[in-house]
Amino acid sequence: MSAADACQLCREDGGTILWQDGDCRLVLAADAEHPGFCRVIWKRHVAEMTDLDLAERRHLMSVVFAAEKALRDIVRPDKVNLASLGNVVPHLHWHVIPRWRDDSHFPNAIWGPALRDPHERPAVPGDALRAAFVRSLAGEAG
Questions:
Q1: 82: alpha, beta or left, given left = phi > 0 and alpha = psi -120 to 50?
Q2: Cα–Cα distance measured from residue 8 to residue 70, given in angstroms and rounded to the nearest whole number
Q3: Quick one: CA torsion of 103, 108, 114, 116, rounded to 10 degrees?
Q4: What are the chain's domains?
Q5: What does each C-alpha distance from 45 to 19, 58, 89, 112 come to in angstroms?
Q6: Which of 36, 38, 93, 124 is most buried by its number of CB atoms within 10 A?
Q7: 30: Cα separation from own chain's centroid
Q8: Strand runs (DSSP E) across the chain, as ranges?
Q9: CB-CB contact of 114 with 108 (8 Å)
Q10: Across-strand partners of 28?
């Protein structure tokens, strides 16, 4: 079995696809406490940023930055966390996570122990987030 066959992000979308091109995709994760939580996933199975050439790195980061801007415009969080870990799934992807001062983990990372009881927030309409992302990405390219 190849690494790509064993890889969850090679086999699955990783969330609801909001946008994609030939290199990467932006997906909306299902997370009631962090509505708008997105992942930017590189399509080719690589583990590290330095597996990409310079143009690919720039493209990937322009997508990550456009996703952050779209979240700030649509969701209006107190903070946005950007994370690329890949310890559990060693396939290059970035988490773009809206954060609020009263979320259950703030100010710590969302993967650690909760500091307070969670509460759900209103869902983010995928169409609105997609439209804001496309506008942001066009601004990044311009």
A1: beta
A2: 26
A3: -50
A4: 3-141 (3.30.428.10)
A5: 19, 18, 11, 27
A6: 38
A7: 11
A8: 16-20, 24-28, 38-42, 79-83, 93-99
A9: no
A10: 16, 38
| Token reading at 139 | 């601004």
pTM for the predicted model, two decimal places: 0.92
Q: What angle do CA 24, 82, 115 make, to 5 degrees?
A: 135
What pLDDT shows up at residue 141? 59
Query: How is residue 77 written in tokens?
Result: 């969080």
User: What does the alpha-carbon distance between residue 92 and residue 86 come to, in Å, rounded to a whole number?
Assistant: 7
The per-residue pLDDT for range 27-72, each reduced to its tens digit, is 999 888 899 999 999 999 999 999 999 999 999 999 999 999 999 9
pLDDT in tens, 82-136: 999 877 888 999 999 999 999 999 999 999 999 999 888 899 999 999 999 999 9
What is d(CA 100, CA 142) in angstroms, rounded to the nearest whole number?
31
Structure tokens at 110: 């969302």
Residue type, 110: I
